[in-house]
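Before drawing any conclusions, I needed to go through one protein's amino acid sequence and its C-alpha cells, quoted below without any editing.
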Amino acid sequence: MIRPATATDAPTIMAIIQQAKQLLAADGIPQWQGAYPTQADIDRDIDRGYTYLLLADHEAVGTATLFQEPDPNYATIYAGAWQQHSSERYATIHRIAIAPGHSGAHLGDLFFSNLTSEAYRLGFREMRIDTHANNARMQHVLLKAGFTYSGIVRMDDDPTDLRNVYQLFL
C-alpha cells in the first residue's frame, strides 16, 4: 500500500534516495550522481503533498513524488512526440526509488500500480515519467506498467542531460 509522506518521513526518504544513488552509480548510470535530489527537494514535495511512501509490513520500502503540475522539462520533446491525446493536465512520477534488499519482490510494479490509481483518484487521466537512457531496469518496469516511449527531453534545458520520456493514459 502507499500513503502520503509527512515531514517526519524525510530521513527515511533521504536514506532510500541515497541507496538508489549508489545502485545507479554501480550500474554506471550518471542520473542522481550530484546533489540532486536534495533535502530541500524532498521537503518541498512533502509540503505540497506530492510524496508517497510504499509500505511493506508497515515499513517504508519505497518513495516517489507524484508531481501534479506541468513539468517545464517536458515542454519540448526531441526525437519523438507526446501522443496525440496528450493534454496539459498530467501527473508525473519523479524521484521514485525502492530500498535495496527488496529485489525480486516486484515492489516497483506494485508501486507503479498504486501511484497510477492515486493519480486517477486525483482526476488525472495521463501520466508521464522520465529516466536515463542507460537505466534498463526502470525502462523494463515502465513498459510492464503500460507506459509507452514518447521521445527525449532535456533536463533544465541542458543538452548534455537527456532523458527518455514515457507516457500512460488512464
User: Anything to note?
Assistant: The chain has a mean pLDDT of 93. The longest helix spans residues 10-26. Strands lie at 2-4, 51-56, 59-67, 91-98, 126-131, 148-154, 162-169. The chain is about 30% helix and 30% strand.
